[in-house]
Write a structure and sequence with these properties.
The complex is a heterodimer of chains A (525) and B (453).
Chain A: H1 19-25, H2 75-86, H3 109-115, H4 118-121, H5 133-150, E1 154-156, H6 162-179, E2 187-191, H7 197-204, E3 208-212, H8 222-228, E4 233-239, H9 251-260, E5 264-269, E6 288-291, E7 311-313, E8 325-330, E9 339-343, H10 359-395, E10 411-414, H11 424-433, E11 440-441, E12 450-453, H12 461-480, H13 482-486, H14 505-511
Parallel strand pairs in A: 2-3, 2-4, 4-5, 5-6
Antiparallel strand pairs in A: 1-7, 6-7, 8-9, 10-12, 11-12
Helix pairs in contact in A: 3-10, 5-10, 6-7, 10-12
Chain B: H1 8-18, H2 47-59, E1 69-70, H3 83-89, H4 92-95, H5 107-124, E2 128-129, H6 136-150, E3 157-160, H7 166-175, E4 182-184, H8 199-202, E5 209-216, H9 227-235, E6 239-244, H10 255-258, E7 262-266, E8 282-286, E9 299-303, E10 309-313, H11 320-323, H12 336-373, E11 379-380, E12 389-393, H13 398-407, E13 410-411, E14 414-415, E15 426-430, H14 437-452
Classes of the chains: A alpha/beta (525), B alpha/beta (453).
């Protein structure tokens, strides 16, 4: 087969000879699926466009690029390549994905259809508002629903992801204090069980992070919190239920302590799935919170994004929201619907990204909420908590569950087995042999060898039982045949099984091959 | 309608295993007075009903496929997306997967991102691409985070051209408000159209400058060779970030060739639907020497224990879940599925197809510009070379002209006066391969009518 990249040279850093060559040289890695560059053959193309129907204009010679080193493939080559790659992925459509903190629930198919309706997909973000009233009505309604679900006074849909929502929230808190002339507040209090994005968002906003320990029941340690609260505190970033899957038993007290020192409370909405129709965070005094539409409201994770991270705020923070948000710019009359448009909050922190947020994700979340209604959303929370507690009950006694209380939508077990040297990582990898995606491991940091399990509400009892059975069997294997775990996953064939074993992560970081070809060598072709 | 696959009998059995009598008991830690609020939401719909409702909302828009002919760009462009792209995107194996933290069962996503990184590096002539950011605006903002980290906060000035997209500049201002940084050049109110040139930036660069940011083509569609500016910035020890349009890079000299340290931009033109502004794709490239300060995920090649070539997320020690408050950025997700879309698009079009698209845009835009400039009262604002977007000085306020165009089913260009007071009555017009000669002629006719009013 002709290969456009075979003549790219044999450099040692980024540039690698294609695998077939390396194999010929001996000792080189086997190639399971060639890269798109290795599949390229000069002269092929996957799509053609019409000839210009206007006279050709003169091109500015001095400004043209000499070569465009993109691969050349036919349509069928491209389709087969990506089809092959897709088979190497585990997915929610393919199986159980009990990834703690990630809420890998089923992604309804109707959402994909509604988001692609031509009326939505073919609208330009800068069209006059009169021509996009459908989009704006949807966004306005979604803002209203999110307010109702969370108990906040105002919502922005602009942030692109949870971490982006956090940055938004932290900047709002900072702006609120500065607006009151209180610029000495520079500290953000963050419990030791928090997601890494919490301190990173605070760091990006120029704030100093103070860590607050957890008490023996997994709640925020009230004495430590009280000691840390003073007139330099911007606020507290609270994840509730926390990353141990526990609802903070003193949440109202925590909020009160922070408020008393003049601080604000940020709610990390990553775990909102457990609270739908159960508790509105705004009702217990949380001041600002981000939603993860890709967790709680079923928009797909897409292999790492796009997410969507709207932010809700209490009334006193509404005027600091990012601009613009959707509002009614002309009230409706009897037979006339209102005119929706964009409004700029008075003391806005500014814009967080171009245009209006991940609109396609907003359509999916709207679809999901409309289909659930109030009762449906409460069932989501109830069954997600039921499933987590059921799994916890089945695994208790086999794996240690620190902080053994009724959990919410997830729980954390210790990934170790008495009398065996296996680690959480080994258990996680062995689960792949049983055709399950592993739980989140080594997080939260406060639990040794953590396995963080979140089943979500969209799994049936049979799946949960099979998963529990597998984990129990693995605990036995850990004692009788630990090598089986150390070397997992194993070469297995059949649908859904991975053809790949454990990775050499050190080699990846040391050699840093980040690209299948080296730009500066391309011209030698 | 919900998606819960548990029968009442199974539920009861599970409650018994847990050792509680009711669902309510599972929520005893939740403060009683706030527990189980009555949510005021509309009654639940079935799939059939929701499909109808959403269809109704979608029909409440005038879309640019069937209702309007668009000449609007300004950062989001109407391009043809071959059918293959969405067919690949709709594979559940891709779109319902999580971030590839478990590489043994995520090689599909990992290799696709590795190839995306390769394709973007090729397009920009840069050494390293990360796995993507949220959009073009946030990619620009992240370039500042990276430069700030590179100089360990010791250089505190960022020079940004006023000809960078106004919303990117707004986003940047938001991002830096907690940082000890000053922005120079970011002042559209004081510049006249003549001053919106590349030369005025050089004077702003000094020993305290961490980063210089320009756009290519710039917001007004103009193409400049930034080589001299980049050399001047480097002479002062500063880094340079160029925000580029990826379609233009198929045809024109790349910022990588000009010596840029970072080339970033909005990847939407590479096979991603307009979708009212998102989700899009922020691409981010740099040179290898800066890689440890780059934010975002990165996929690298390695081998597995079976001797097979494979891919993993690498250099994760840079990221928030390890470095926490000391990370360059808090970014957690990338735009995985959008990166996949652009990889499929670039693979499918290849060098021939992408160049063809870029040339079609160029020829059609120049045909439109030539004919518009012939209408009495209209003229091109700049004589700099341009790609597929150009600024027109109009005889009347842009809003009035656009109202008239809309009556003819035409979505007119962007009103530059909204962001640049000195460019009142200036319209930014975008033409892509999607616009036929007939549509362009209709635009010219409609514009001519306005002048006669």
């Amino acid at each position: 087969m002709t290969n456009s990249s075979t003549t790219l040279g044999t450099g040692t850093s980024t540039l690698r000879p294609p695998d077939r060559d390396r194999q010929a040289q001996g000792g080189a890695p086997l190639c399971v699926e060639p890269t798109i560059y290795e599949l390229s053959s000069p002269g092929r193309t996957g799509v053609t466009f019409p000839d210009p129907d206007v006279p050709r204009a003169e091109l500015p010679e001095s400004m043209l690029r000499a070569e465009l080193p993109l691969p050349e493939l036919a349509e069928v080559d491209v389709v087969r390549h990506y089809m092959h790659l897709s088979r190497f992925n585990y997915s929610v459509d393919g199986g159980f994905y009990p990834l703690g903190s990630c809420t890998m629930k089923y992604n309804p198919k109707i959402n994909e259809d509604t988001a692609r309706l031509p009326g939505f997909a073919f609208t330009h973000p800068l069209q006059p508002v009169e021509t996009v009233q459908g989009n704006l009505a949807l966004m306005y309604q979604l803002q209203e629903w999110l307010k109702e679900i969370s108990g906040f006074a105002a919502v922005t849909l602009q942030p692109a992801a949870g971490a982006h929502g956090e940055l938004t929230g932290v900047l709002i808190m900072r702006a609120y204090h500065r607006d009151r002339g209180d610029a000495k507040r520079v500290k953000m209090l963050i419990p030791d069980s928090a997601h890494g994005t919490n301190p990173a968002s605070s760091g990006m906003s120029g704030l100093e992070v103070v860590q607050i320990p957890s008490d023996p029941r997994g709640n925020v340690d009230l004495a430590a919190l009280e000691a840390a609260c003073d007139e330099t505190v911007v606020g507290l970033m609270l994840t509730n239920p926390n990353t141990l899957g526990l609802f903070d038993e003193h949440v109202e007290e925590v909020v009160k302590i922070v408020h008393e020192c003049g601080g604000l409370v940020y709610g990390d909405g990553a775990n909102l799935n457990a609270l739908l129709g159960v508790l509105r965070p705004g009702d217990v005094g949380i001041d600002v919170m981000h939603f993860n539409l890709h967790k709680t409201f079923s928009t797909p994770h897409g292999g790492g994004g796009p997410g969507s991270g709207p932010v809700g705020v209490a009334a006193r923070l509404a005027e600091f929201l990012p601009a613009p948000i959707v509002g009614v710019i002309e009230e409706g009359e009897e037979d006339l619907p209102p005119l929706f448009g964009f409004v700029t909050p008075k003391k806005t922190i500014g814009r967080l990204k171009a245009f209006h947020g991940h609109f396609g994700m907003l359509v999916r979340a709207y679809t999901y909420i409309a289909m659930h209604g109030a009762d449906g959303l409460r069932q989501v929370a109830e069954y997600s908590v039921l499933n987590a507690n059921y799994l916890k009950a089945r695994l208790k006694g086999v794996y240690t569950v620190p902080f053994d209380r009724i959990c919410m939508h997830e729980f954390v077990a210790e990934g170790k087995v008495e009398g065996s040297d296996v680690k959480a990582l080994d258990i996680a990898k062995r689960l792949m042999d049983y055709d399950f995606h592993p739980p989140t491991n080594y997080f939260p940091l406060i639990v040794h060898e953590a396995l963080m399990i979140e089943p979500t509400e969209t799994e049936n009892k049979d799946t949960l039982d099979r998963f529990a059975d597998a984990l129990i069997k693995i605990a036995e294997e850990a004692k009788t045949d630990p090598a089986l775990l150390h070397s997992a996953p194993h070469a297995l064939t059949g649908a859904g099984k991975t053809p790949f074993g454990r990775m050499d992560e050190v080699k990846a970081a040391r050699e840093l091959v980040l690209c299948c070809w080296l730009p500066e060598k391309y011209s030698e072709q | 309608m919900n998606y819960i696959p548990i029968s009442p009998k199974e539920r009861d059995a599970m409650l018994a295993t847990i050792g509680v009598k009711s669902m309510e008991e599972l929520f005893r830690d939740v403060p009683k007075k706030h527990r189980f609020p009555k949510l005021d939401l509309p009654p639940a719909l079935t799939e059939m009903e929701v499909a109808a409702e959403l269809n109704e909302l979608a029909l409440g828009n005038e879309n640019i496929r069937t209702d309007l002919v668009s000449f609007l760009g300004a950062g989001a462009y109407n391009h043809y997306i071959p059918a293959v792209v969405d067919h690949i995107l709709r594979r559940g194996e891709f779109y319902t997967a999580y971030t590839p933290y478990q590489p043994e069962i995520s090689q599909g996503t990992l290799q696709a991102i590795f190839e995306y990184q390769s394709l973007i590096a090729a397009l920009t002539s840069m050494e390293v691409s990360n796995a993507s950011h949220y959009d073009g605006a946030t990619a620009v903002a992240e370039s500042v985070n990276m430069a700030y980290a590179q100089f360990r906060g010791k250089r505190t000035k960022v020079v940004i051209s006023p000809a960078v997209h106004p919303q990117y500049r707004e986003t940047l201002r938001t991002y830096v408000q907690g940082m000890d940084l000053t922005l120079a050049g970011d002042d559209p109110e004081t510049v006249s159209s003549e001053q919106l040139s590349v030369n005025s930036l050089e004077a702003l660069v000094d020993e305290n400058t961490a980063l210089v940011i320009v756009q290519y083509p710039d917001f007004f569609g103009r193409i400049y060779d930034y080589t001299a500016l980049i050399e001047a910035a480097h002479a002062a020890g500063a880094l340079v970030c160029v925000a580029a349009n990826p379609t233009a890079l198929a045809l024109f000299k790349t910022p990588g060739e000009m010596g840029a340290d970072m080339v970033v931009g909005e990847g939407q033109p590479l096979g991603i639907p307009l979708s009212y502004g998102g989700p899009y794709l922020g691409f981010f490239t740099t040179r290898k020497q800066y890689i440890h300060k780059m934010a975002g995920r990165l996929v690298g090649e390695t081998v597995d224990n079976r001797g097979q070539r494979a891919y993993v997320l690498t250099l994760t020690a840079r990221e928030q879940h390890i470095k926490r408050e000391r990370a360059t950025s808090n970014i957690c997700t990338n735009q995985g599925l959008m990166a996949l879309a652009s990889a499929v698009y670039m693979s499918l079009l290849g060098q021939t197809g992408l160049r063809q698209v870029a040339e079609l845009c160029y020829h059609k835009a120049h045909y439109a510009a030539k004919n518009i400039s012939k209408i009495k009262g209209y003229s091109l604002c700049f004589d700099t070379p341009f790609f597929h977007e150009f600024s027109v000085c109009c005889p009347q306020p842009v809003e009035a002209i656009n109202d008239h165009l809309l009556e003819h089913g035409i979505l007119g260009g962007y009103d530059l006066g909204r962001d640049y007071p000195s460019l009142k009555d200036h319209m930014l017009i975008a033409v892509t391969e999607m616009n036929t000669k007939d549509e362009i002629d209709a635009l010219v006719d409609a514009l001519a009518e306005v002048n006669h009013d």
